[in-house]
Every structure is written in structure tokens, then in C-alpha cells.
């Protein structure tokens, strides 16, 4: 423990697997809390949802729901994880740098935090405790 805290010894592979799982669960569940109200208020939101890409409010909302809902569930399960974070990264880039472009950092902060978490998941991958491990066993044989 002393080595880990003060010298920076790397995590053992089993500990890394648990850290990756906790990160996926934490970020995925939190993002679902943004998707559920959008689903519940879909009829109203589809008329007033921001349209930063010029594709229409309804399609913008639908794509946001797919990212925040479906992709978050995939991240939680660790299924096609790196592929699933790509729409979420795009969603957070649009939220932070287009929708909140003229606003202060306080309004962008949450989207930027999610962006950082999704970049971390993209780089680190899902870990051994994931559906990806069972789907792509040969990639995990040396872990």
C-alpha cells in the first residue's frame, strides 16, 4: 500500500479490472440520469430541443437519446465499449463547444467532465470485467 500511495506502483491487473468496471458503472449510470427525463418529456422536447447541427429538433433529440441512453447501457455492460463511447464523445463535444459556446465555463463544466471520462474509457478500454472480454477473448488472453 505504501508503494502504491507514495511511489506510484502500477495497479495489479485484477485491481485495474475493478477500477475500469467502477468507472464504466459510475459514468454510465450518471449519464442515464440525463437520458431518462428526455425520454419522459419526448413529445414536448422534440419541438424545443436545441438543433446545433441544423438537422431538426426531433432528430437532434433522437440522436442525443441514442447516445445518452443506448450507448450508456453499452458502456455499463462493457459491450462494444470503445465504439459506444464515440457517440457520447461527439454528444459532449456538441454540448460543451456548440450548444454552450457563448456561455461561461460553469455551463460547460458538466459536458467537459463527461468528455474527459469518455476519453479515459476510450483509451483504457472496458477492462476484463466486461462483455467485450467474452466477445473478444483473444484480445484479453495476455491480461
From TrEMBL:
What are the record's GO terms for cellular component?
plasma membrane
| Residue stretches spanning the membrane | 59-81, 88-106, 112-131
Q: Does the keyword Transmembrane apply?
A: yes
Q: Where in the cell is it found?
A: Cell membrane
Query: Pfam families recorded for this chain?
Result: DoxX
Q: Is Glycosyltransferase one of the keywords UniProt gives this record?
A: no
Topology relative to the membrane: Multi-pass membrane protein
State the PANTHER family in the record. Answer: INNER MEMBRANE PROTEIN YPHA-RELATED, OXIDOREDUCTASE CATD-RELATED
Family listed: Belongs to the DoxX family.
User: Protein name, please?
Assistant: DoxX family protein
The organism's taxonomic lineage, starting at the top: Bacteria, Pseudomonadati, Bacteroidota, Flavobacteriia, Flavobacteriales
